[in-house]
Amino acid sequence: MGKSFEGSQAVIDALDKVGYVAEEELATMLFLTLKLEKPLLLEGEPGVGKTEVANVLAKILGTDLIRLQCYEGLDVHSAVYEWNYQKQLLSIKIQENSDKSEEEKEAHIFSEQFLLKRPLLKSITTQEKAPVLLIDEIDRADEEFEAFLLELLSAFQISFPVLGTIHAYH
């Protein structure tokens, strides 16, 4: 994830510099998350500061915070990607009289340039620095979506029917 810490006290010190007071237990969890490059699940009552942990973590790492707000009925497409239909339609119209085959035209309109990246895809394709991905209110998502998230967070990749598998940069 870029910046490394030499222990939980270094995490406490870094958090303190951005105005966040952390207990040893939280600092240890953050240190291990960063060291092992694994996801961290924080549970707790509303208002205890789970979201703020993600905000300050992004600050101390000097990276972006990408947020996915979960809700009942959230599907993979809304969280991962959508196609830019207007741009695809315009491209189809422009290519109407071209010499390309139907397969070439189809491959063109279903290429990455027409892909609208949603939070999950954005989080694994960010090239500069690994972002902090905040998946908020995961308990509101359907079981099918939760299973998809577990697969994504364990394998750090997303498979597309048209584009194939995209692996995380970080």
Task: Write out key terms for the chains shown.
two-stranded parallel sheet; 6 strands; 2 domains; alpha+beta; single chain; two-stranded antiparallel ribbon; about 170 residues
Number of domains: 2
How many individual helices? 8
Principal-axis shape: elongated
Class inferred from helices and paired strands: alpha+beta
Nearest-integer average pLDDT: 89
Please mark out the parts with pLDDT under 50 across 5 or more consecutive residues, or reply none. none
- The string of secondary-structure elements, in order, is HHHEHEHHEHEHEE
For the biggest sheet, the summary is: 2 strands, parallel
Oligomer kind: single chain
C-alpha end-to-end distance: 7 Å
Q: Approximately how much beta-strand content do the residues carry? A: 5-15%
